[in-house]
Task: inverse folding
């Protein structure tokens, strides 16, 4: 029985983002299934011995073992590549799997990596660990114009940054730092786009070579999958897939998790836009509350990098960070009196998640590293969900009022 395909010859690249979320990289099976099936198998049968040889030697493309490739995972990878405007995408079993696979594939002993000083705690820890393998790492503040240029060396091979940065929401001018890096031949610009998702920012449009996501967050959107993705030119992604994923880390995404993310992508734009609208109202409320010392949200005109954010972000995202006047003890009291907001790490789910970076996501960092990254003891990181914004603000207010 031949595959049943709708008689459509539209160019998917011309479709709106919401349509790409649902119909991007269509996969049609012989039964005409509207939702692609889950290929829950480790291995695939060869038609004959010659076919097996051609697949293993790379003379033909296809599936033979799910660590090397799986139809459900490949379907997901094609969808996300379209959403990011990339040639190709490689899915991994976690966000850190995506980052470590990228580093181990594209860097070697003697190479120099320039990284922004404000990063996710586990990424910072990884960048310290890879120095044991002879990779030189320099941490700088990429928000300062010219810092990348000043730090370049003949052996520099990569720059790495987050924007907005975790957890301070510092905004890096993507176009500027990419131009600074690409002024020297052979340097890759790599960014973690988790906090934005492709709904908010497409870094490749601004010159980035490699885009990484923790797909556990907005891409999946339901706090029930661990996954990561790496997007970029096909030659780069093939290198990461063949070396980093298959050999170095083995961080392979399962078919069932790929299916769940495909399902999550269908509502990606709806979820991110609603959460961003909620976050704007939450930030405006927090900005006026007497218990709050400082608020970090790029959608506020008072944010240091508001103009840069306006240039490269379609909305301002749903991450809000703020500091309490009563510091660490005030933070604990505040968090312990919340009712509907979940005290938990992670972000990008339908539900609101709130946490204390110094004792949670950045607990593995030294005090000096936290200070350099701008992480204070009284800092609270808030992933605003898609609950009714009135309920979110009411819960925040009653807990904050206890600090007055």
Result:
């Amino acid at each position: 029985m031949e595959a049943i395909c709708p008689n459509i010859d539209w160019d998917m690249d011309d479709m709106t983002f919401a349509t790409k979320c649902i119909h991007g990289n269509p996969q049609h099976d012989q039964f005409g299934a509207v939702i692609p099936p889950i290929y829950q198998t480790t291995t695939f049968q060869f038609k004959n011995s010659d076919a097996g040889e051609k697949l293993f030697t790379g003379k033909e493309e296809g599936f033979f073992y799910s660590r090397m490739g799986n139809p459900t995972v490949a379907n997901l990878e094609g969808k996300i590549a379209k959403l990011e405007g990339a040639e190709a995408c490689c899915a991994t079993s976690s966000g850190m799997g995506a980052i470590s696979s990228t580093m181990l594939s594209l860097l070697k002993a003697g190479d120099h990596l320039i990284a922004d000083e404000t990063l996710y705690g586990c990424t910072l820890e990884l960048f310290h660990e890879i120095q044991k393998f002879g990779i030189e790492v320099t941490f700088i503040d990429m928000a300062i114009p010219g810092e990348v240029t000043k730090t370049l060396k003949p052996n520099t091979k990569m720059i790495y940054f987050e924007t907005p940065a975790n957890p301070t929401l510092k905004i890096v001018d993507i176009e500027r730092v990419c131009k600074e890096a690409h002024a020297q031949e052979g340097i890759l610009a790599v960014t973690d786009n988790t906090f934005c998702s492709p709904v908010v920012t497409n870094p490749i449009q601004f010159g980035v070579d490699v885009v990484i996501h923790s797909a556990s967050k907005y891409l999946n959107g339901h706090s029930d999958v661990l996954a990561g993705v790496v997007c970029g030119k096909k030659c780069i992604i093939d290198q990461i897939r063949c070396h980093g994923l298959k050999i170095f880390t083995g961080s392979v995404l399962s078919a069932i998790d790929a299916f769940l993310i495909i399902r999550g992508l269908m509502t990606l734009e709806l979820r991110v836009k609603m959460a961003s609208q909620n976050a704007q109202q939450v930030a405006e409320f927090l900005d006026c509350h007497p218990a709050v010392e400082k608020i970090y949200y790029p959608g506020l005109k008072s944010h240091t990098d508001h103009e840069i954010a306006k240039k490269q972000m379609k909305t301002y995202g749903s991450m809000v960070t703020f500091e309490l006047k009563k510091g660490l003890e005030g933070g604990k009291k505040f968090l312990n009196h919340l009712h509907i907001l979940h005290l938990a790490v992670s972000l990008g789910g339908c539900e609101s998640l709130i946490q204390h970076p110094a004792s949670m996501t950045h607990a593995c960092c030294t005090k000096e590293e936290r200070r350099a990254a701008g992480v204070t003891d009284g800092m609270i990181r808030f992933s605003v969900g898609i609950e009714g914004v009135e309920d979110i603000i009411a819960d925040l207010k009653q807990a904050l009022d206890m600090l007055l």
About this structure: The mean pLDDT is 94. DSSP finds 15 helices and twelve strands in the chain.
